[in-house]
Amino acid sequence: MLNITSSAVDTTIFAVIAVIVLGTIGTLIFFLINKIDQVKELQDALKKLKLSFNSLDEQAKLILKTDLELNRAQEELDRRLASLDALQRTSRLISTTLDEEEIFRRLDKSLMLQLGFERILVLTFDEERNLRMRVNTGFGNDQVSEITNDLLKDTSFNSVLQEGYPFSSATASKQKKEKAISVFGIPHFILAPILTQDGTMGVIFVGNQTETTPISEADEEMISILTNQIGQSLENAKLFEEVYKSRQELELKIQDRTRQLALALEKVQKISRTKSEFVSAVSHELRTPLTSIKGYAAILMSGKLGEIPEKVKERLEKINKHSDSLVELINDLLDIARIESGRVEMKFEKVNLRMLIENMRDLLMPQMREKNITFITEVSDDLPLVLADSKQLERVFINLLSNAIKYTPKGTITIRASGNDKEVNVQVQDTGAGMREEDMPRLFTEFYRVENELNQNIKGTGLGLALVKNIINAHQGTIWVTSKIGEGTTFHFTIPLEPAKLEPTNEAQKEKTEKQG
Amino acid sequence: MPLLVGIGFSKNENPYRAAQDASAQAKIQINQEPADLVLVYATAAYSRLEALAVVKDIFPDARTIGASTSGIILSGSIESTGIAVMTISGASKQIQFGSALIKNLEEQNPEVASRELARKVLKDFGMNPRQLSLVFFDGLSAKGPLLLRGLKESFGQFSPIVGGGSFDNFHYQKTYQYFNGDVTTDAACALMIGGQIAVGLSSQHGWKPLGKPRIADRTDRNVIHRINGKKAISLYEEFFGEQASLLFLNRLNRARLFYPLGVLIEEQQKYILNHIVNVLEDGSLVCQGEVPQGAEVHIMIGNKDSCKQAAVQAAREAKDALLGRPAELVAIFESVARQKLLGRSAFQEVQAVKEVFGDHIPVFGMYTYGEFAPLSTTERGSPCFLQNGTINILALAQHKTH
Lengths: 517, 402
Description:
The complex is a heterodimer of chains A (517) and B (402). With 517 residues, chain A is α+β, with helices and mostly antiparallel strands. Chain A has helices at residues 2-95, 100-113, 141-153, 158-161, 174-184, 217-302, 310-341, 353-370, 390-407, 453-457, 464-474, 506-516; strands at 119-125, 131-137, 167-168, 188-196, 199-208, 349-351, 373-379, 386-388, 411-419, 423-430, 478-484, 488-496. In chain A, strand 1 and strand 2 (131-137) form a beta hairpin. The longest helix of chain A has 94 residues, at 2-95. The N and C termini of chain B lie close together (8 Å).
């Protein structure tokens, strides 16, 4: 029993242990399976993480490439903007001068400071098509003469010098680039022609020894724009120079001609003075014997020397009358000579023209009546007083009215006078024969008489109007005439209310001093 | 006496006349008072002895320090040619300066030379409280990182170092350092600033990492031999193609400046930028700054907008560091990479900085080829690195307003 019991207990224990072991194993297996799943999950997660990291890297590469491109674009844009800015400044600098030398001076500075080139060479063609150095920075003189020789001789540079196309280290073919480097000794460069309407007038070389600022196609374009601007500025300077030269020549011509005219005027004035003096002297000399002639004629006519026959008396009267005419002529001549030479001293006083004109009516009415002429005066009520020599003005009116009476067989003579705060205007109008237009300009010349049938029958010296003109001029006024054949003539004159003070001429002064002495 | 700041600039074609004009303008702005400090920046063509001598003649008693650059940042413009002079007057009682120069970097052990430079500066500066030091070094010299290492050790970690590599308008030929009328190349000069002056400094770049992280698993200071078990250049080859090395060997290629290598600094979780300055025959990359072995690296990418945002952030941090004191001057040391990337819109960045400080703030800055700057300017004692692509804004304010 005990054995059975012990065996049963053993079995039970074994069974329990077995269950426990199996259970533990099962649990362990369960946990193991579970762990394996977790590890798998973790491995998956790690895999995913790795993938994400790798994907992050790929994205980063993409971002960097895009950023690199953006930066490149930005760099190019910045460079272009900076170049445009520099170009604009340089263009403004060189276009604000018209001096060729100054253009090159400013260009030199600007190319270095604004555009940052270390080496600059500007060459222009002279009249013999040799290249002449205008700007040089960084090249020795010997080197420049070698460069100019090479440029002219080597056909590699024909495209620039002959055809006007630029090239640079960025765009030139390998062969061309190597040639340029061997000539200039500079690896980064632009060579551009200076173009004008007449073709290539020179060439600009700019360059850098180091690649601090790499030269691009955009730089080449920019320098080309600049060289065009230089060409234009040089053309403007040339045009200005030409205009300036021709203006100077013109000015010299004008000065020369003015000098000639001044000399001629001096001669004319001298002649005129001599003439006046001659006329004055002759007139004086004539007046003395004439006075004697008149005196003797008067004595003879008076009968104091015995009765004279009627026929002789008639002749003596004619002598007397002609002598009077001659005296009048001589007096007119003397007056003209005096006024012209300034030897007549005007006695300026306030003159009432209205009264002066009315006096004329009294003076000349008998002659007008004789010819059946109506005399009209139209004097405005507010006619101001004028500062003038009344005696001389009387002579003006007498001369003009006498002329009008002479040339108006019958009709009307009108005097109009009006004024403003500066001057008075007077018209003496007749309804006489009138005159041709071509006669008018010379009307006021001494001894000029209009040639027509009427004039042949009318006596006159041709001095009256010349005297009138001289008097009006002495009053600083102007006189002119309008006329129409068959309708009549009008003389117009103006005189200022107060003539501006004039320095007396030397001769007048001299005469005055002599008189005072 | 209040602190007076004068800034003059000229691009007269004659460097001598330009220096004279710029100095005269600066002198007028400090009411003809004697200057305590003169800072000079000039582009390559103006880096002439006669130009710097004239500056020294006009300010004979002032410390003069400066460097050649590819661009001068001013309140109203950015100039790519010319000479600029900044003067500080009335500072003698409030601010202490110490300055020195060491020449012939290439012939010396740079760490020894830089310790010597630091020693001279500190001797000149005396036992005054230090604020920060301004350093200019030859940007084309490969010894920048070692120079910085020596200076850091000598000046201590609580005195940040700012400044940068002098440059030459992208000619990559010769850069100049100016010190008291002397014009040298292959040299470094430093100015320690301290005393009763509040300093706000911030450095930012705005570049972001591209692609999956990779590990620089074998480096030697500024040379990265292998990245992710492959030759280092393969990282760039994956992105730029097989011509990548040619791309980076051409110094004029903008890709070198636009896609620097970002190195993650674990502690601050910040990336510093490193320009690749050379590719060795075995495909190793030579960076301007040092790369710690095992660092996570990325190709970095930035754009105009991210640059401007970084500039605004730097300006705000620098302003905040002044604790409400009004800034008297903003000095900018900015990477040439940003000058190129921003291009014609570079001045917009300056305007954004001015908006933070107020439109009338005098701005005086230069473009540098490599910048010294602390990684974090909000944490005191943050380590300084030789970085690239950064904008470093240094704002100065008086402790007491007059």
